Amino acid sequence: MKPIAIAIHGGAGTILKSTMTPEKEVHYLNALDTAISVAYEILLEGGTSLEAVEAAVMELEDSPFFNAGKGSVFTNLGKHEMDASIMEGRNQKAGSVAGIRNVRNPVQLARAVMEESEYVMLCADGAEEFARRMHIGFEEDAYFFDQHRYDQWIEIRDSEKTMLDHAAKKFGTVGAVALDCHGDLAAATSTGGMTNKRFGRIGDSPVIGAGTYANNKTCAVSCTGHGEYFMRAVVAYDISCLMEYKGLTLKQACDFVVFDKLKKSGGEGGLIALDAAGNIELVFNSEGMYRGWKTSDDDYGIKIYGE
Q: Is the Cβ–Cβ distance between 11 and 165 less than 8 Å?
């Protein structure tokens, strides 16, 4: 049997054991484990990498503990604006949505854009109209309400400040990369953005090549970090390029981009990446990153903090 593998992340940043309650830690670990298990079962039964990353991200979107879907933070106007993208490595087809509201699972809509439209990226009202035509699920505002996130927004809504996420400094994004038994790679990313963000700000998560990329020749990548830096560096595609054009291994490419290129520019965050041989990298230059992985070689793990 050819190798199969799945890796996921739930955001990176200042994530310290000293500031984490035991109860919250259990919630995070359980949520990551569930997403890994659901996606791996799809791969084990012969499903596609695209199905696996969509399922993993949907599980994380349905959790209030991650800044995506149900757990999305509040904008300056007290709304929830979500972004997501998905890409398959076999032929580089991709779909993306930005600035959407009330869609339960943005990654599901991103896949619909990829498969059911002639476009790659849709935004705001137009994306929501397309979602209704595709019978994608919507939820009322109350579904996305979280008291802690609301309190954080209230604290800074009359200022020019933005807050990255519910931790002191956490880049709230979820994502997944997968390799299926057909040898195909896929990647997906979803986010609720920044607390108190203004003017329809969009980060790297829905930008193909910045926050998400997949190519069977090289790798699949999903990023989490300060989006402006990741967009300027075209991080996900840069890793693929370093492998394709310079012959770097997955580890070499990820280490260079995250620890050298990004760090020199002031960019903080991390990424998960997977190559066609099933090698996994979970790399970050911050204190921690919610992450998990499982492979057909019985390699399994779930971690939160830095080593």
A: yes
Contact 222, 239 (CB under 8 A): no
173 is catalytic: yes
Q: Does domain 5-297 have CATH number 2.60.40.420?
A: no
The amino acid at 29:
L
- Please list the pLDDT of the chain residue by residue as tens digits (307 residues): 789 999 999 998 868 787 888 998 999 999 999 999 999 999 999 999 999 999 999 999 999 999 999 999 888 788 899 999 999 999 999 999 999 999 999 999 999 999 999 999 999 999 999 999 999 999 999 999 877 776 776 776 666 555 455 444 456 799 999 999 999 999 999 999 887 777 889 999 999 999 999 999 999 999 999 899 999 999 999 999 999 999 999 999 999 999 999 999 999 999 999 999 999 999 999 999 999 999 999 999 999 999 7
CA distances from 33 to 149, 177, 260 (A): 24, 15, 31
* pTM for this entry: 0.94
Domain ranges of the chain: 5-297
Closest CA to 95 of 120, 117, 116: 120
Which residue is catalytic, options 48, 173, 195, 224?
173
Rounded Cα distance between 34 and 94, Å, is 26
Rounded Cα–Cα distance for residues 233 and 250 (Å): 17
Structure tokens at 94: 């991709």
- Cα–Cα distance for residue pair 124/129, rounded to 1 Å: 9
